[in-house]
C-alpha cells in the first residue's frame, strides 16, 4: 500500500500521466495513432534524448547545468563515425568516443566545481570549442559512408518492437536509478543540490560529487553520440545542435527541479519520451513539423512557470504556517499557567 | 572621454583597448587588407548585431540574469518585417514598428516570468528561444514565399539603413551601434534607473528593503534586450536584403562572450557598457580577421570564441581564489595603498 | 557503559584542547590566542556577546576555517582538522545555530546520510536512539515541514548516531519554546551521563547555571573567564562579559531630554496582526526611543517588516503621524517617513560590491534631490559625506566598496542609508549585532543624535543591556504579543529578561 502511495506522490508520476494523457488526446483526434507500432516508435526515437537527459539530470541534481552536451554528442558522433567509416575497429572507435566524453566531463567538472565558474557560462564556452572541433573533424563534407552493418544495429529489435538501443537505454536508466537511490554515494548527488552547505557539514565531498556529475553527463552524451551515428547514419557539422536544450527540457518535463536536489532519472527518461514524441504527435494531429519548436517552447515555459509558482506558494504557506504557530502557542501555554 | 577609463573597471578597459590594438597589429601585419578602412567598415555588417545586442544583454546580466533568447528574436523580427510588408501589404516602416513591438512583447513575457514568477532566467530564456524561433517559423509559413528562400525585394528606403554612409565613410549600422552604445551608457551609468539596475543585481532583497521595485527593473532589462535584438534584426535584414526566420543564427555564445569579456559579472552587480562595447568589437574583429588573414573557415570561429570565453572566466576565477589572492596581495601591498588614497 | 561524571574527569586527559589559537579575517583580528579544554562528561558553556569570536572558534574546530596560529589537541594528540569530514571522523559534531538540513529529504534520510552502514542497520540504530532519548518524531516527514526545534533534534540525532565524543551546540535554545528547552536540557543531561563532552554556546546566563558544569566567557577574541560553574556567581559572569570600562558608559546616559507624551504619537499600531505576531497595540512619540525586547523568534522582526510592506497584514492599522499606511508598499512607507534597518545586514541591508555612496543613497533614489531622471552625483556625494562625517564612518573614500568595510562601519552605512530618506521614525532591528565594542558605542551615539533631532527610534534588540541603556520606554514581546510595558525607571535587565521569557516576576527559566 505504502509503495503505491509513494509512487503516486512522486513527481515523475505526474510526468507519466502527462505522457499518457498526451497519447490519449492524440488518439482521440486521430484514432489511427493508437497502434502498437506508433507508440513504440515514440519510445524508440527517444533513445538519444533519454541518454543525454539522464546525463543532464546529474548536472541538474547538483544544482548546475551543462549546455555542452549537444556539441559533445555531435563531436563524439563525428569522431566515431569517421573512424568506423575509415574501417577502424568498432570497439576502438567506441572506446575513443567514451574517452572524449569522459575528458569533456572532467574539464567541465573542473571549471564548475573547482574553479567555481558559473556552470552556464563555462559549459557555453566548452560547447563552442567542441562545436568548432566538430567542424574540424567533419569538414565541409559529411560522414555519410557508414557501413550498413553499423547502421543496421539501430533497427534490430529485442523485445516486441523495441529496438536493442532503446532496451539498453532503459536498462541503463534503471540501473542508474537504483545506484542513485539505493547507494550511499548515489544520495550524495541529491544532497549536494538540496543543500550544499549542509552536505559539507555532514562530510559529503561536494566538489568531488559535482565533478562526478559532470563526468557522468559527459559519458552519457558520448554514448548518445555513438548511438546517434548508428541511428541516423549521417553526421553533419550541425548534428547534435540544440540537443542540450532538448535534454534540459526533458529533465524539466520529467519533474526535475532546476534548482537542484529534486527528481529522478526515471523522470528524465519519461521527459525524453515526451520531447521526442512531440514532432511525431504533431504529424498525427495534422500539424506541420513547423510547430515543433513553438510547442516545445510553450510546454517548457508553462511547466517551469507553473512549477515555480507552486513551489513559491508552498514555501510562503509553510513560512506563514510556522509563524502563525508561534503566536497560537501563547494562548495554549497561557491557559496552562 | 578620459573619464571613461578612470572608473573601477579602468584596468580591464585598458586591457581591452590593448587587445584591440593587438588585433590590428597582428591581423594587419598578416594581411594588409585588414587595415583597409572601407573593407573593415563593410565587414562590420557581419558582426554588428553581436555588438548591438551585447550592450543591452549586459544590463540583463547586471541584474543577475541571462538572456539566451535574443538570437531567436532577431529572426522573429526579420520575418515579421518581411511577412507583414510583402503579404499583409503594410508600409515598410509600419512593418518595422510592428516587429519592434512584437519583440518588446516577447522580452516582456520572458522578463515577467523571470521577475514575477521567480523562474531561473536561464530556463525561461531557453524556453523563449524555442518559442520565439518556433513562432518565427510559423510566421514564415504565412508567407507565399518558400521559407528557405526568404523574402526579398525591399524598398530602397529600407535597404538604405545599411547602405547609407555618413560622411561618405562610416556606414549607417556603425552609427546605429554607436548611438545605442551612448544611450545605453547614459541609461546605465548616469540615470537613477541605471543605478537601480546595479543595486538590484548586487542584492535584490536589499533593493526591496530600499523601496526599489526590483521586479519591474528586472523585467525592463529583458524588454530592452529584446528591443536591441529587434534593432539588430532590422539592420541585418536591411543589409542582407532578405527576411528569414533563422537570420539570428547562433549569436548566443558570441553575445555572452562579449559581455563576460567586457567585465560583466555573470552573478550580477558588475559590468559596464564601455567594456562590453570594446569586447564585442574585439570579438567582431576576430571574426573578421581570422578568415581574412589566416584562412580560417568561418565555421571554426566557435573555437577561438569558446576558448576566449573559457580563458576569461577561468582566469578571473583564478584571480579570485583565496590562495592566489593572498599571493597577489603580498606582491603589491604598496600599490593597493596608493590606489586607496586617490 | 555509563561512566560517572567524576571518574571521567579525573582519569582522562582533555577530550579537546585548544592552545593559543589566532585567527584574523583581513585586518579584523577575531581570535587573539584562545586556550580552552573540554573533557568527556563535561558541559562547557561558552558565553560571549555577538562578535566575540565564538562561532569562528567553533568553525576552526570543525575544520571549516583554518587558524593562523596555535594548536588543536584531541585526547592529547595534536591534530590538523583539514575539513569537516576529518572533524566528523574524529568524533566531533556541531549542531549549527541554523540547522542545515536537506529540505527535500525526510527525517530519516537526513539523519543517515553520509553513513557507510546498511540502511536497515542504521534504521534499527536510529529507532533505538530515538527511544533512548524519548523523542517522538515521525521519521518519514519531509524536513522542509519541520519546526526549528524539530530540525535541531534531527541535527542532534545526526551527532548521536555518529557516536560523536564531542558535541557542539551553537545557541540551541535561541529559537525554542519553553517546553522545547526543557526537553533539550534533558537530552543534554543524558548525553553527559554517557560521557559525551559538550560545548554549549549561549548568550543566556541563566542557562549556564542550569545545564553547564564548566563555563568559559569570550570577549573580543580572548577568554576572560574559564572554570567550573560552581566557582562563579552570576555577577562574576556579567563582569566577564563587559568591557573593562563599561560601567561608566551605562551611567552616562542619565541626562535625557524629556519626551512630550501629550503630543500626537508619530507611530501608532492598533490591533496590528500579521504572520508571526498578533494584536499589537503600540504608540511611539516624537523623539522617543522605544525599546522592543524579546527572545529571537518572538515576532518582533516580523512585525517590523510587515509595517515596512514586506509581508501581508492580517488585521489592524498602522498610523504614521495619523496617516494610515497599513499594507502600503515599501517605497510608499519610506516616502511617508518610516524607514527600517534590517536585522541581517548582509542579506537585506548591504550592497557589498557597490561603493559607500551608492549604498547610502539607495533608499532615497525616489527623491527629487538626487535628480529627476539623471542621478545628481554631486548631491549624492554631499549626502554621503554628511553621514560619513557625523557617524565617524571609517572609509578610505566614497568609492570604497561596502563589502570591504568592517562590520561596525557597514552597519553605520546601512543606518545612514535609512536616515538619508529623511524619516520621522526609524526601526532599528538588532543594530549592534556582530559589531565590535567601539562601533557599538558609535551606534549608541547615533541613536542619541537622532533623539536630539526629534526622530523617533523603535529599537528592537535581544541585548537587554542595550535597551536598558538607550530606551525611554520599553515593551517586551513574547510569542507574537506584547506582554509587558516598562517606564524608563522600571527598565532593568531582570524585568526585561523575565518578561521576554514570558515569566511573571523574577523567576528565571530552567529546570
Structural summary, described in words:
The complex is a heterotrimer of chains A (337), B (342) and C (511). By secondary structure, chain A is mainly α. Chain A folds into 2 domains: 280 residues, ABC transporter involved in vitamin B12 uptake, BtuC; 46 residues. Chain A is built from 15 helices and 2 strands. The C terminus of chain A is likely disordered. Chain B has 2 domains: 289 residues, ABC transporter involved in vitamin B12 uptake, BtuC (Orthogonal Bundle); 43 residues, no CATH class. Chain B is globular, with a radius of gyration of 21 Å. In chain C, helix 16 runs parallel beside helix 17. Chain C is globular. Chains in contact: A-B, A-C, B-C. At the B-C interface, helix 9 and helix 10 of B face helix 12 and helix 13 of C.
Describe the structure in brief:
The complex is a heterotrimer of chains A (337), B (342) and C (511). Chain A has 337 residues and is mainly α.
> How many domains make up the coordinates of chain C?
2
Kindly report the spatial arrangement of strands forming the biggest sheet of chain A: 1-2
Helix run count of chain C: 19
Assembly of the depicted chains:
heterotrimer
Low-confidence stretches of chain A: 329-337
Distance between the termini of chain A: 44 Å
Percent of residues in helices of chain C comes to 25-40%
What is Rg of chain A?
Answer: 22 Å
What's the CATH topology name of the largest domain in chain C?
A: Rossmann fold
Strand content of chain A: under 5%
Estimate percent helicity of chain A: over 70%
Which structural category fits the helices and strands of chain A? Answer: mainly alpha
Question: Largest interface: which pair?
Answer: A-B, 46 and 48 residues
CATH architecture of the largest domain in chain C: 3-Layer(aba) Sandwich
Give average pLDDT of chain C, whole number: 82
CATH superfamily of the largest domain in chain C: P-loop containing nucleotide triphosphate hydrolases
Q: CATH topology of the largest domain in chain A, what is it called?
A: ABC transporter involved in vitamin B12 uptake, BtuC
Shape annotation of chain C: globular
> Mean pLDDT score of chain A, rounded?
87
Amino acid at each position: 500500500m505504502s509503495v503505491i502511495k509513494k509512487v503516486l506522490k512522486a513527481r515523475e508520476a505526474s510526468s507519466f500521466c502527462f505522457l499518457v494523457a498526451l497519447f490519449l488526446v492524440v488518439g482521440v483526434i486521430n484514432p489511427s495513432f493508437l497502434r502498437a507500432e506508433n507508440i513504440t516508435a515514440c519510445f524508440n526515437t527517444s533513445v538519444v534524448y533519454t541518454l543525454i537527459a539522464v546525463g543532464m539530470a546529474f548536472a541538474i541534481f547538483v544544482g548546475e547545468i551543462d549546455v555542452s552536451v549537444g556539441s559533445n554528442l555531435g563531436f563524439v558522433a563525428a569522431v566515431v563515425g569517421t573512424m568506423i567509416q575509415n574501417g577502424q575497429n568498432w570497439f576502438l572507435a567506441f572506446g575513443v568516443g567514451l574517452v572524449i566524453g569522459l575528458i569533456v566531463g572532467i574539464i567541465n567538472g573542473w571549471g564548475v566545481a573547482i574553479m567555481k565558474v558559473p556552470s552556464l557560462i563555462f559549459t557555453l564556452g566548452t560547447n563552442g570549442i567542441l562545436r568548432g572541433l566538430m567542424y574540424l573533424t567533419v569538414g565541409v563534407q559529411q560522414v555519410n559512408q557508414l557501413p550498413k552493418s553499423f547502421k543496421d544495429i539501430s533497427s534490430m529489435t529485442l523485445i516486441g518492437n523495441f529496438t536493442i538501443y532503446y532496451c539498453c537505454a532503459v536498462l541503463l536508466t534503471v540501473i542508474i536509478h537504483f545506484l542513485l537511490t539505493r547507494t550511499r554515494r548515489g544520495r550524495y548527488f541529491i544532497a549536494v543540490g538540496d543543500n550544499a552547505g549542509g552536505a559539507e557539514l555532514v562530510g559529503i565531498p561536494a566538489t568531488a560529487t559535482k565533478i562526478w556529475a559532470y563526468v557522468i553527463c559527459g559519458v552519457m552524451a558520448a554514448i548518445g553520440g555513438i548511438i546517434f551515428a548508428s541511428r541516423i547514419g549521417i553526421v553533419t557539422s550541425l548534428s547534435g545542435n540544440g540537443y542540450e536544450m532538448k535534454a534540459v527540457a526533458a529533465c524539466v518535463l520529467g519533474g526535475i527541479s532546476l534548482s537542484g536536489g529534486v527528481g529522478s532519472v526515471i523522470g528524465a527518461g519519461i521527459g525524453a519520451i515526451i520531447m521526442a514524441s512531440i514532432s511525431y504527435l504533431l504529424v498525427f494531429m495534422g500539424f506541420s513539423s513547423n510547430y515543433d519548436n513553438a510547442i516545445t517552447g510553450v510546454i517548457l515555459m508553462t511547466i517551469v512557470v507553473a512549477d515555480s509558482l507552486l513551489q513559491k506558494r508552498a514555501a510562503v504557506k509553510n513560512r506563514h504556517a510556522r509563524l502563525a504557530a508561534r503566536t497560537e502557542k501563547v494562548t495554549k501555554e497561557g491557559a496552562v499557567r | 572621454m578620459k573619464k571613461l577609463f578612470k572608473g573601477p573597471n579602468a584596468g580591464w578597459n585598458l586591457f581591452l583597448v590593448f587587445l584591440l590594438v593587438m588585433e590590428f597589429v597582428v591581423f594587419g601585419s598578416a594581411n594588409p587588407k585588414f587595415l583597409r578602412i572601407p573593407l573593415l567598415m563593410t565587414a562590420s555588417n557581419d558582426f554588428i548585431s553581436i555588438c548591438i545586442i551585447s550592450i543591452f544583454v549586459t544590463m540583463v546580466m547586471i541584474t543577475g540574469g541571462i538572456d539566451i533568447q535574443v538570437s531567436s528574436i532577431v529572426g522573429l523580427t526579420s520575418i515579421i518585417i518581411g511577412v507583414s510588408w510583402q503579404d499583409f501589404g503594410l508600409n515598410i516602416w509600419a512593418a518595422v514598428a510592428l516587429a519592434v513591438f512584437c519583440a518588446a512583447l516577447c522580452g516582456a513575457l520572458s522578463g515577467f516570468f523571470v521577475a514575477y514568477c521567480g523562474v531561473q532566467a536561464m530556463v525561461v530564456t531557453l524556453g523563449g528561444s524555442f518559442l520565439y524561433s518556433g513562432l518565427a517559423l510559423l510566421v514564415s509559413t504565412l508567407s507565399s514565399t518558400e521559407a528557405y528562400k526568404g523574402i526579398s525585394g525591399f524598398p530602397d528606403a529600407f535597404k538604405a539603413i545599411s547602405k547609407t554612409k555618413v560622411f561618405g565613410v562610416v556606414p549607417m549600422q556603425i552609427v546605429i551601434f554607436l548611438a545605442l552604445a551612448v544611450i545605453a551608457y547614459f541609461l546605465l551609468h548616469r540615470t537613477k534607473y541605471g543605478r537601480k539596475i546595479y543595486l538590484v543585481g548586487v542584492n535584490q532583497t536589499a533593493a526591496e528593503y530600499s523601496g526599489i521595485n526590483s521586479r519591474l527593473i528586472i523585467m525592463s532589462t529583458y524588454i530592452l534586450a529584446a528591443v536591441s535584438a529587434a534593432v539588430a534584426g532590422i539592420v541585418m535584414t536591411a543589409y542582407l536584403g532578405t527576411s528569414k526566420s533563422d537570420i539570428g543564427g547562433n549569436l548566443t555564445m558570441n553575445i555572452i562572450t562579449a559581455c563576460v569579456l567586457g567585465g560583466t559579472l555573470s552573478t550580477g552587480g558588475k559590468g559596464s557598457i564601455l567594456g562590453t562595447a570594446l569586447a564585442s568589437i574585439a570579438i567582431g574583429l576576430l571574426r573578421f580577421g581570422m578568415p581574412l588573414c589566416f584562412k580560417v573557415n568561418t565555421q571554426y570561429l566557435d573555437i577561438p570564441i569558446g576558448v576566449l570565453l573559457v580563458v576569461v572566466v577561468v582566469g578571473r576565477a583564478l584571480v579570485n581564489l583565496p590562495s592566489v589572492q593572498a599571493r597577489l596581495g603580498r606582491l603589491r601591498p604598496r600599490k593597493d595603498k596608493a590606489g586607496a588614497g586617490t | 557503559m555509563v561512566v560517572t561524571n567524576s571518574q571521567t574527569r579525573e582519569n582522562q586527559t582533555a577530550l579537546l584542547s585548544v592552545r593559543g589559537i589566532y585567527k584574523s579575517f583581513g585586518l579584523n583580528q577575531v581570535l587573539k590566542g584562545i586556550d580552552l579544554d573540554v573533557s568527556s562528561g563535561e558541559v562547557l558553556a561558552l558565553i560571549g556577546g555577538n562578535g566575540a569570536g565564538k562561532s569562528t572558534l567553533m568553525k576552526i574546530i570543525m575544520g571549516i576555517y583554518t587558524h593562523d596560529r596555535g594548536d588543536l589537541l584531541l585526547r592529547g594528540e595534536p591534530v590538523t582538522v583539514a575539513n569537516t569530514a576529518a572533524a566528523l571522523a574524529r568524533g566531533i559534531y556541531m549542531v549549527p545555530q541554523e540547522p542545515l538540513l536537506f529540505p527535500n529529504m525526510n527525517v530519516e534520510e537526513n539523519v543517515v546520510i553520509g553513513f557507510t552502514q546498511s540502511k536497515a542497520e542504521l534504521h534499527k540504530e536510529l529507532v533505538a536512539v530515538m527511544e533512548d532519548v524519548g523523542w517522538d518524531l515521525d521519521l518519514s516527514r519531509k524536513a522542509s515541514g519541520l519546526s526549528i526545534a524539530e530540525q535541531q533534534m534531527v541535527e542532534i540525532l545526526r551527532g548521536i548516531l555518529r557516536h560523536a565524543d564531542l558535541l557542539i551546540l551553537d545557541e540551541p535554545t535561541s529559537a525554542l519554546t519553553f517546553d522545547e528547552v526543557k526537553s533539550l536540557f534533558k537530552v543534554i543531561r543524558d548525553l553527559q551521563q554517557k560521557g559525551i563532552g559538550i560545548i554549549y554556546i549561549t548568550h543566556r546566563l541563566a542557562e549556564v547555571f542550569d545545564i553547564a558544569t564548566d563555563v568559559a566567557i569570550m570577549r573580543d577574541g580572548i577568554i576572560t573567564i574559564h572554570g567550573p560553574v560552581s566557582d562563579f556567581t552570576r555577577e562574576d559572569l556579567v563582569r566577564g562579559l563587559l568591557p573593562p570600562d563599561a560601567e561608566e558608559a551605562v551611567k552616562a546616559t542619565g541626562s535625557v531630554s524629556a519626551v512630550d507624551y501629550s503630543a500626537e504619537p508619530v507611530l501608532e499600531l492598533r490591533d496590528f496582526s500579521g504572520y508571526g505576531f498578533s494584536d499589537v497595540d503600540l504608540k511611539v512619540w516624537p523623539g522617543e526611543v522605544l525599546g522592543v525586547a524579546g527572545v529571537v523568534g518572538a515576532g518582533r522582526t516580523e512585525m517590523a517588516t510587515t509595517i515596512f510592506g514586506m509581508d501581508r497584514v492580517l488585521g489592524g492599522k498602522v498610523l504614521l503621524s495619523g496617516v494610515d499606511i497599513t499594507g502600503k508598499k515599501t517605497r510608499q512607507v519610506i516616502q511617508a517617513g518610516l524607514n527600517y534597518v534590517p536585522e541581517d545586514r548582509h542579506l537585506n541591508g548591504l550592497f557589498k560590491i557597490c561603493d559607500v555612496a551608492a549604498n547610502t543613497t539607495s533608499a532615497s533614489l525616489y527623491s527629487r534631490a538626487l535628480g529627476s531622471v539623471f542621478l545628481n552625483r554631486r548631491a549624492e556625494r554631499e549626502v554621503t559625506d554628511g553621514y560619513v562625517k557625523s557617524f565617524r564612518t571609517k572609509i578610505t573614500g566614497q568609492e570604497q566598496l561596502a563589502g570591504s568595510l568592517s562590520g561596525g562601519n557597514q552597519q553605520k552605512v546601512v543606518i545612514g542609508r535609512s536616515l538619508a530618506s529623511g524619516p520621522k521614525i526609524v526601526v532599528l532591528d538588532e543594530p549592534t549585532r556582530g559589531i565590535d565594542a567601539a562601533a557599538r558605542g558609535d551606534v549608541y551615539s547615533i541613536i542619541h543624535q537622532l533623539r536630539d533631532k526629534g526622530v523617533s527610534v523603535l529599537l528592537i534588540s535581544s541585548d537587554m543591556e542595550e535597551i536598558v541603556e538607550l530606551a525611554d520606554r520599553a515593551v517586551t514581546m513574547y510569542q507574537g504579543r506584547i506582554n509587558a510595558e516598562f517606564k524608563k525607571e522600571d527598565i532593568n535587565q531582570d524585568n526585561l529578561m523575565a518578561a521576554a521569557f514570558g515569566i511573571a516576576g523574577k523567576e528565571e527559566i530552567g529546570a
